[in-house]
C-alpha cells in the first residue's frame, strides 16, 4: 500500500495548509522525512519548480539512488506566447529542476497549470515536454488539473502519462468524469492530491474558519459516521483514495516526521476499501472544495 503513497513537498518551502500551525519544517526535519519515506517504501515524491526551495531541499537531503519516483511540475509559463524561444526556455527550466533535485532522470513532469494549454504558444509547451521525454530526461509527461474542464483540455492537447487532480471524500468530481474513465482506460496514471483538503477534513468543524460555516454540519456528520465505524478521519480519508484501484497514487503533504509516520501507519494498517456511503457523500458547493477559491484568511 505504501508504494501508492506519495509525499507532497509544497510545505518544504512555504507555510501551506489550512490546518498547518507549525509552518515549514526545518532542514533537519526534512532530511528525516525523506529518509523515512525511502526506508518505508513510499512510492512517489511530488514537487514543483514553483515551490520555493523545495527542489533544492530535496536535492540536498534525498539519498542518491533512492527508489522514489520523483514527479515535478513545469516553471510558470504565463508569457510563453511572447518568449523568443519558448521551447528552449521550458527545456532549460526542466534541466534546472533536475540540477536542483540532483537527478539525471525524472519519473514525471507535469504542466503545473493546465489552463496554459488553452493559451497562445501551448504547442511549444507540449513540444518541449515531448523533447524532454525523447532525451531520456523523463519517463512520463502529464498535467495537474483542478476540474473536469481542465482535464478535457489536457486530453485535447496530448496524451498524458500522468494526471494529478483533487480527489477526496467530499470532492469526487473527477472520478465521475467520462474523460477520467477514458484516460484511465488508455493507461494514464491518476494521482490524487488534496486527499485531506489541506487538512480541512481532519479538523474539528468548530475549529474551522467562519468561511466554512455552511459546510460544518456536513463535515460533522461525515466525521460522526467515521467514528461509528471506529475509523479516525486520517484513515478514512486515506482509505477512500487508496481503496480505489483506478487511483495510482495518493499525494499527501506533512509538516513533520511525526505527521508522516501517522499517515504511513494509517495507510499501512487500514484495509483499503471502497465506502459507498462516503463516496456518495453530501453535496458540497465547489467554492468549498477548491482552495484557490478560499479567501486568504482561510488558507
Write the layout of secondary structure elements.
Blueprint: E1 5-8, H1 27-40, E2 44-46, H2 54-61, E3 69-73, H3 86-101, E4 106-111, H4 122-134, E5 138-144, H5 148-157, E6 162-166, H6 178-185, E7 189-193, H7 216-228, H8 233-242, E8 249-253, H9 257-269, H10 276-280
Parallel strand pairs: 1-2, 1-8, 2-3, 3-4, 4-5, 5-6, 6-7, 7-8
Helix pairs in contact: 1-2, 1-9, 2-3, 3-4, 8-9
Structural write-up:
This protein is α/β, with parallel strands linked by helices and 299 residues long. The chain has one domain (2-298): Alpha-Beta Barrel (TIM Barrel), CATH 3.20.20. The chain is 37% helix and 13% strand. The chain has helices at 27-40, 54-61, 86-101, 122-134, 148-157, 178-185, 216-228, 233-242, 257-269, 276-280; strands at residues 5-8, 44-46, 69-73, 106-111, 138-144, 162-166, 189-193, 249-253. Strands 1-2-3-4-5-6-7-8 form an eight-stranded parallel barrel, surrounded by five helices. The longest helix is centred in the first third of the chain and has 16 residues, at 86-101. The chain is globular and about 55 Å long. The protein starts with a strand and ends in a 19-residue tail after the last helix.
Amino acid at each position: 500500500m505504501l508504494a501508492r503513497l506519495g509525499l507532497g513537498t509544497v510545505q518544504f518551502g512555504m507555510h501551506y495548509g489550512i490546518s498547518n500551525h507549525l509552518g515549514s519544517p526545518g532542514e533537519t526535519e526534512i532530511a528525516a522525512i525523506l529518509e523515512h519515506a525511502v526506508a518505508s517504501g513510499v512510492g512517489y515524491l511530488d514537487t514543483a519548480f514553483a515551490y520555493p526551495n523545495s527542489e533544492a531541499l530535496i536535492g540536498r537531503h534525498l539519498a542518491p539512488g533512492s527508489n522514489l519516483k520523483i514527479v515535478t511540475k513545469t516553471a510558470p509559463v504565463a508569457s510563453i506566447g511572447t518568449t523568443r524561444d519558448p521551447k528552449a526556455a521550458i527545456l532549460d527550466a526542466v534541466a534546472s529542476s533536475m540540477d536542483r533535485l540532483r537527478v539525471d532522470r525524472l519519473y514525471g513532469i507535469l504542466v503545473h497549470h493546465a489552463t496554459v494549454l488553452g493559451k497562445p504558444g501551448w504547442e511549444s509547451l507540449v513540444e518541449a515536454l515531448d523533447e524532454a521525454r525523447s532525451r531520456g530526461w523523463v519517463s512520463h509527461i502529464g498535467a495537474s488539473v483542478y476540474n473536469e474542464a481542465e482535464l478535457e483540455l489536457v486530453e485535447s492537447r496530448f496524451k498524458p502519462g500522468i494526471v494529478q487532480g483533487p480527489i477526496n471524500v467530499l470532492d469526487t468530481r473527477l472520478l465521475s468524469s467520462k474523460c477520467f474513465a477514458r484516460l484511465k482506460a488508455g493507461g494514464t496514471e491518476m494521482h490524487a492530491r488534496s486527499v485531506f483538503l489541506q487538512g480541512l477534513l481532519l479538523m474539528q468543524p468548530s475549529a474551522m474558519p467562519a468561511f466554512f460555516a455552511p459546510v460544518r454540519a456536513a463535515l460533522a456528520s461525515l466525521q460522526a459516521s467515521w467514528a461509528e465505524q471506529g475509523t479516525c478521519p486520517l484513515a478514512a480519508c486515506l482509505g477512500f483514495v487508496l481503496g480505489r484501484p483506478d487511483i495510482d497514487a495518493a499525494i499527501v503533504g506533512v509538516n513533520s516526521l511525526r505527521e508522516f509516520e501517522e499517515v504511513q501507519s494509517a495507510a499501512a494498517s487500514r484495509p483499503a476499501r471502497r465506502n459507498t456511503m462516503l463516496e456518495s457523500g453530501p453535496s458540497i458547493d465547489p467554492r468549498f472544495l477548491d482552495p484557490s477559491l478560499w479567501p486568504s484568511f482561510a488558507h
